[in-house]
Amino acid sequence: MTSFDAIIIGGGHNGLVAAATLAKAGRKVLVLEAGSEVGGAARTEEFAPGFRASSIAHLLNRLHPDVVKTLELEKHGLQFGRADFMPSVALSKDGPPLVLHGAYGEVLTGASSSEQSAWKGLRAQLLRYAGILKPFLYRRPPDLAGMSLLETVSLGQTALALKKLGKEDMRDFLRVLLMNVADLLDEQLTDIRLKGLLAFDATLGSHLGPRSPTSLLGLYYRLAGETDGAAGAQVLPQGGMGAVVTAIRASAEKAGVEIRTLAPVAKIIVEKGRAAGVALDNGEVMHASTIVSAINPATTFLDLVGPREIDTGFVRKVKNIRMKGDTAKLNLALDRPPQFTGVDAAGHKGRLVIAPSPDHVERAFNPSKYGEFSPEPVMEITLPSLADPSLAPSGACVLSAVLQYAPYALKEGWDAGKPKFLKAVMAQLESYAPGIGKSVIHAELLTPADIETRYRMPGGHWHHGELQADQMLVSRPVSGWSGYDTPIDGLFLAGAGSHPGGGVSGAPGLNAARRIIAMKG
Amino acid sequence: MAQATKKKPVAKAAGAPVSARIAAQAHFHTLRLGTPFQPRIDALARTQDWYNWAGYRAPHSLWDEELEYFAIRSQAALFDISPMTKYRIEGPEAEALLNRVTLRDVTKLRPGRVHYTAWCDDEGFVLDDGTLFRLSPTRFRLCSQERHLPWLLDSAVGFDVIVEEETEAVAGLALQGPTSFAVLRDAGFAGVERLKIFDLADFPHDGGPQGNTQVTISRTGFTGDLGYELFVSADMALSLWDRLMTSGDLRGIRAIGYTALNRARLEAGLIVANADFTTAEHAIRADRLRMPDEIGLGFMIDLEKGHFNGRRAILEARAKRKLRYVLVGLEIEGNIPAEHAIVYHKKAHEVGLVSAAMWSPMAKRNIAIASLARPYGDTMVEDLWVEIYAMRELQYQKLMKRAKVVARPFIKLDRRTANPPADF
């Protein structure tokens, strides 16, 4: 039997990034993936004969530049330039849409000139502030108990960056940090379409409405991401999100990583407080001195390690991680491309957002607090086959949409609720793209319950834990254990449930691998 | 609006565990409950000197502190321990759960045995100490000073076990002193002579040997003397009391309060949570938390038995020499009790505090339990002093007395462990 230095549980993109990074540092690495394919929720899958779409994540806007560099992803076919940047189109039922061009609205069209200059100011401010947070949102969180010199220096650098803002700007940064996005938008903008789009972006993927305290953080999180060096830029990978995973996998395999699919881990073997190996569900046992779990943190500790190997207080913390998803995914196979009212050809290749105003987003959020889905959901739509015809049969079209709000714990249950929610979604789509309903060949709606089952994401939450202030940074996944190591020696976390969080960034995987390498050194 | 005001059935499922927990903590609702023995104790309470023991009205003394103490050492003393927090922990994995929660190896605790143990939080700080009764292979009773139901329930996640508060349902009595065995024998508890120290067994009470009519007697106690503890369902409490009082009449049985017991336990060198150390959930100041090694409970820690709460932190503290305190027994010159006196090194440098002190009538020594900051009391035991403030007619007389670190217990009575127990 081959022996490995490290076993990675979970072949999602973070698991693969961690594996590749460790392998490049000379470790012998095995990746165990429960499913038949690696990639987790970042795959490209066929959902109807001839129609393929990105599983859950469908837009790339935060792949960490260090991941691209460390894994040499450009060599493995992943390359993006400014020409690939997608516009964001704020759809409107009664009038022309408003479009953010370039990297998150370098140019704004469809708005009044006063609104354009207001946006210019706000955009610059948002990017400036997101830039302050960026190092925090990328690096390993500071170890509050015993800060190393390096950590102290990097914290100092952030303090310096804050200082460089100037007194007024620094005060404003601190003032707005934990604000709700709606209030900030109301301070600076007037166009409800633009405000609606930003309110949607700030709350996408979380159980927050635009008026929920701290909702602005979601926008910072988005803008801390970059593509080709441009903050906030978004692209559609050719071949869907699976292409990104393919590149990461190629890099990992080139570095010598061995990957086994259909190998679900049933147990992490712990001996005297140390991870010693894993047992697969078929009983096969494998040993390694380093075990990296790139799956959900609650699954890792409550199911694979088991409560009896960890302390009660830690079990408590893990059980208290909030991870009930509020977002659904829709894949439509259409017999022809849809026509969204007032949107030009370039716009159709962009990100189409239905979030007509902050009020609308807030009203969509309200029912989810009480276990009901939004009767008029807000959503982000892409038509990936327009730019990549390989995804659909000739003349046909794929629509991929992320929908809010669809609470995991739907009161009536998703068996009963799913057809009703699909109807609400289709009605919403119909009003922005008349005739779309008739062109549907097949509709696949993935509720949080479906996402949970299909992608092994408890609560169907794509961040593997709500990404809110109390579950970020030093509190992610739980307070006291934010640095990728765990109470079990030799066991590390590397998934989206760890800092900084979800989205196709590779940052948790990269940081975890770096931590492991640094610890041994 | 009609829709908004329409009443909808409230979803109860999600709230159920929370309300169950609240219901299980009914002690919050009545301040100073009476125990099942209260009618008898009230009838004997001449001093009316009460204190609050875990929400119950408990006596400091009933008639005379001194004589109550000597009842423990010369006769038989009956002390109501019903307020002690009691949990029933039962199920196929009760042993595994307790092994994970507590410090000692529960697999070594045989059915019919009792051991003294303690438990820690994740940081290795002591949450409480207490006694663990193994009533059967799958049934335990955990007795402690503080309440721990939420902690135990959260600890039970993933174990096939039931954890239930039984403080109110089960009444308890400690019968301690040289004639205690004879009192039980004369009360008709046949076979009680077979109980060795830390043994327990069930005995029939009120006729039938089944169910509620059983009394669990263990040869345990908090006095360092020959003694027993008796547990019975609350509705049988008074008849048990009467049975003991009747049979003990000629053997000097007396009901006592806590002051007398507290003296006896100090002579026995036993510590009391939140008197000799601050439990982790009560401590507000970071330097008040104590690891087992810092309060003399390091002997309980079993690193070979598998994982238990706090193991990682305890190992690290030991390896990195992060243990900061030590709990010691002191013998102090003179005869003035040094209660809450400051301990000095070379009469000048403050190194700790006395948490309990007395002139011991049994040991004929001035004894104390103190917590010292290491290395004092650990590797540096010479030249220690205590400063006693003796109030003499509205003036403090400050006494600097030499203190010597001595082993606990301060007294060792052969009758405590003698088999068969002696008849007095």
UniProtKB/TrEMBL annotation, chain A:
Tree of life domain: Bacteria
Domain Amine oxidase: 15-517
One GO molecular-function entry: oxidoreductase activity
Biological role: Probable oxidoreductase that may play a role as regulator of mitochondrial function.
Subunit organization: Interacts with COX5B; this interaction may contribute to localize PYROXD2 to the inner face of the inner mitochondrial membrane.
Name of the protein described by the UniProt record: Pyridine nucleotide-disulfide oxidoreductase domain-containing protein 2
Lineage: Bacteria, Pseudomonadati, Pseudomonadota, Alphaproteobacteria, Hyphomicrobiales
TrEMBL record, chain B:
Biological processes per GO annotation: methylation
Residues holding substrate: E229
Single GO term (MF): methyltransferase activity
Keyword annotations of the record: Methyltransferase, Transferase
SUPFAM superfamilies linked: Aminomethyltransferase beta-barrel domain, Folate-binding domain
Transferase is among the record's keywords: yes
Protein name: Aminomethyltransferase
Domain Aminomethyltransferase C-terminal: 327-412
Record Pfam families: GCV_T, GCV_T_C
